[in-house]
Design brief:
Elements lengths: L8 E5 L2 H7 L10 E4 L3 E8 L9 E7 L10 E4 L10 E8 L2 E7 L7 E9 L2 E3 L5 E5 L14 H9 L2 E8 L2 E8 L7 H11 L10 H11 L9 E3 L18 H10 L3 E4 L1 H15 L3 E11 L6 E6 L12 E13 L10 E5 L16 E2 H6 L8 H9 L1 E10 L2 E10 L5 E6 L6 E3 L1 H4 L6 H14 L13 E3 L5 E3 L12 E6 L9 E26 L5 E26 L1 H10 L5 E10 L5 E8 L6 E4 L3 E3 L4 E8 L6 E10 L3 E11 L4 E8 L5 E10 L6 E10 L1
GO molecular function: metal ion binding; protein-glutamine gamma-glutamyltransferase activity
EC number: 2.3.2.13
Family: Belongs to the transglutaminase superfamily. Transglutaminase family.
């Protein structure tokens, strides 16, 4: 054979715009081809001459540092021959020296970056930008992340904006968050994390392994991952957790420096993990649980200690977080018995170690609901987060020694209003029923008994029966007497605010004591007001009240609790976190010894920011966006900053605004240049010493 007839490749066209549209990857801002596994994509190969029957042509896909055939990291594909790894290529059409090939990867192929070379005879051609990114494919029925509903895929895979629910159970609000999985360097950051995870090629096939590894790598605790957590209240040398409005800046900074970014708290960890999972093609959502238990010894009780004034003490290892945010990822669990497919909880907030690393999940949400807490991974911890009992203890000095008296056990308090953003609209969807059966239902009792049988194999009955165990501070386990369901006097407590809770104003609240049984009753009431972090840690004691009241049942009485601004403003402006107002009340009926404890957390109320911009704009045509804020409070807001980001329309920017006096109106304007089509969102957040975050968002449609 004469050398001039030897076949050479002269060019490869990855047909990027056609392939990425079909693979729903046209959003990624990257030169390379990004495709999803298990679905064909086309490549146009230009040759030095026409392809003939005897010619040897193969496409070689290599993954990792040193691809080898026998390790499965080098795939050599020849037309019309199915490869042993479930990949295949075929010739779609030949036209002169042009050859159109179709490549289908295996629906269980390892995800990651593949290097493509084309081999003809002994010649190897290495195309420019020949690295192909292969992702999970929720559009492919044979992929374990397959999701049938188009609307759900649009939300859980393709939506790059959203919101995260925070606050407290009785005042839930949403924080807008830009996930930005398609932005510059975000996909590369995720690929870097995959490499850093040291998952084997086989492990990279399964989203359960990948999501567990990502839950470990989004926190910096063991492996210099993406985000360093801090709950200290002082964030010098980093960005306070309240100052982020999206994942993009965090992941870009991490990818550039390869060092942990400071600082995150649970919603930041969840926002970033959501970005990473959506970016890799696994359907993912942020999940917020209100009154979430952090039960360190998994005995399903969280102990809360009060002093004689009714103030909470920071002495317990366990805690109840006002809210906690984690993620659910969607997949079939091929490693588990049937019945546990669908949503799986993963959590990257570093709370407890699992198998020696700060990682959590994937834990099947159905296992939490059914009480199957023996299933991997970390189902005991997740179960306790939404099901523990809250036990209140009174700490009294008796003869100079501290004694602990049990006040009450709350069984229906933990794991309320589990929330995520609804599919296709900007509202809250309550998914509590996916995590637990209705309180008091037959199913709930059976699930509880199942869970207890795995958590307490010693045969103790769960709370639906008559006993539950608590660890007293001495460490010995005692069995408690059965709880009486209703007190003899029908004692009931309610805590409300009687005026809006504006920073700079007195905090005006009330504790309402009710008795429903006829008779004359003497009720001793202690009440306290404190500022606390969302993690349950008390930051400041603001005031207490102690009353003895006489009630003729059935009746009620309102006891006011008023806190002057001086009592809390200093604390409010000295910490860099948002704090909640917490009121705890303990009532005791003298005649019957009935005791009741009630705790309510409330958040401060802030004036709004308004965004003004057009409803629509044309691609690459500038438009104006204005931010207007009127300080309706009685205090000056010091060191104000405005954070602004609009994916595809405006790069993340921070504007320093100085101090805004009471009554003053602040107006800022920016010019936006839309670089992408479709519905885009502008997100703004105002931060000052006194207020840790007033957010606003507005949508705009970009047309051609």
């Amino acid at each position: 054979v004469f050398p001039e007839t030897s076949l050479k490749v002269t060019g490869v066209d990855f047909l990027k715009s056609q392939n990425t549209r079909q693979h729903h990857t046209d959003g990624y801002n990257i030169k390379n081809l990004v495709v999803r596994r298990g679905q064909p994509f086309q490549v146009q190969v230009s040759l030095s001459r026409e392809l003939r029957a005897g010619d040897k042509l193969s496409m070689r896909f290599g993954i990792g540092e040193n691809p080898m055939k026998n390790k499965g990291s080098l795939l050599s594909l020849k037309p019309e021959r199915e490869d042993f790894n479930g990949w295949k290529i075929s010739i779609v059409k030949k036209n002169g020296n042009e050859c159109l090939l179709s490549v289908t990867s295996s629906p269980s192929a390892p995800v990651g970056k593949y290097n493509l070379h084309v081999k003809t005879g002994t010649n190897i051609y290495k195309p420019e930008n020949g690295v192909i990114y292969l992702l999970f494919n929720p559009w492919c029925e044979d992929d374990v992340v397959y999701m049938a509903s188009e609307a759900e895929k649009k939300e859980y895979v393709l939506n790059d904006t959203g919101c995260i629910y925070v606050g407290s159970a009785y005042s839930i609000f949403n924080r807008p968050w830009n996930f930005g999985q398609f932005e510059d360097f975000v996909l590369d950051a995720c690929m870097y994390l995959l490499d850093k995870s040291k998952l084997s090629l086989t492990e990279r096939r399964d989203p359960a392994n990948v999501s567990r590894a990502m839950s470990a790598l989004v926190n910096a605790n063991d492996d210099s991952g993406v985000l360093m957590g801090s709950w200290s209240g002082n964030y010098i040398g980093g960005t306070p957790p309240m100052d982020w409005i999206g994942s993009v800046t965090i992941l870009q900074k991490y990818y550039k420096t390869k060092k942990p970014v400071r600082y995150g708290q649970c919603w930041v960890f969840a926002g970033v993990l959501n970005t990473v999972m959506r970016c890799l093609g696994v359907p993912s959502r942020c999940v917020s649980t209100f009154d979430s238990a952090h039960d360190t010894d998994a005995n399903l009780t969280v102990d809360i200690y009060l002093n004689e004034k009714g103030e909470k003490l920071n002495i317990s290892f366990d805690s109840v977080w006002n809210f906690h945010v984690w993620n659910d990822v969607w997949m079939k669990r091929t490693d588990l018995p049937d019945g546990f497919n669908g949503w799986q909880a993963i959590d990257s907030t570093p709370q407890e170690q699992s198998q020696g690393r700060f990682q959590c999940g994937p834990c099947p949400v159905k296992a939490v609901r059914e009480g199957d807490v023996y299933l991997p991974y970390d189902s005991k911890f997740v179960y306790a987060e939404v099901n523990a009992d809250r036990v209140y203890w009174l700490v009294k000095k008796v003869n100079g020694k501290e004694k602990y008296f049990k006040l009450a056990t709350e069984t229906q308090d933990i794991g309320k209003n589990i929330s995520t953003k609804a599919v296709g609209e900007n509202k809250r969807e309550d998914i509590t029923r996916e995590y637990k059966y209705p309180e008091g239902s037959k199913e709930e009792r059976m699930s509880m008994q199942r869970a207890y049988s795995f958590l307490h194999p010693s045969g103790l009955m769960p709370r639906s029966g008559y006993a539950s165990t608590v660890q007293t501070l001495g460490g010995n386990t005692q069995t408690l007497v059965p709880k009486e369901p209703v007190t003899k006097t029908g004692l009931h407590l309610e805590i409300t605010n009687t005026e809006p809770l504006h920073p700079g104003n007195p905090l005006e609240m009330a504790i309402t004591v009710k008795v429903s049984t006829p008779g004359n009753w003497t009720v001793g009431l202690i009440g306290s007001c404190q500022l606390q972090y969302y993690t349950g840690k008390v930051q400041a004691n603001l005031g207490t009240t102690k009353e003895t009241i006489s009630l003729e049942g059935p009746s009620e009485m309102q006891i006011p609790l008023k806190i002057a601004p001086d009592a809390y403003m200093k604390t409010l402006s000295s910490v860099e976190d948002e704090v909640l107002i917490i009121v705890t009340a303990v009532a005791e009926v003298e005649e019957t010894n009935d005791k009741l404890t009630k705790e309510t957390s409330m958040r401060f109320h802030y004036p709004p920011i308004t965004l003004q911009m057009p409803e629509t704009a044309k691609l690459y045509n500038d438009f104006n966006c204005a931010f207007i804020f009127k300080n309706k409070l009685n205090v000056t807001l010091e060191n104000c900053k405005l954070l602004v980001e609009g994916l595809g329309i405006f790069k993340m920017t921070t504007f320093e605004l100085g101090d805004i006096m009471p009554g003053r109106i602040m107006k800022s304007e920016v010019i936006c240049t839309p670089t992408r089509l479709g519905e885009k969102k502008m997100v703004a957040k105002l931060i000052s010493n006194q207020i840790k975050g007033i957010s606003a968002e507005k949508a705009i449609t970009i047309t051609e």
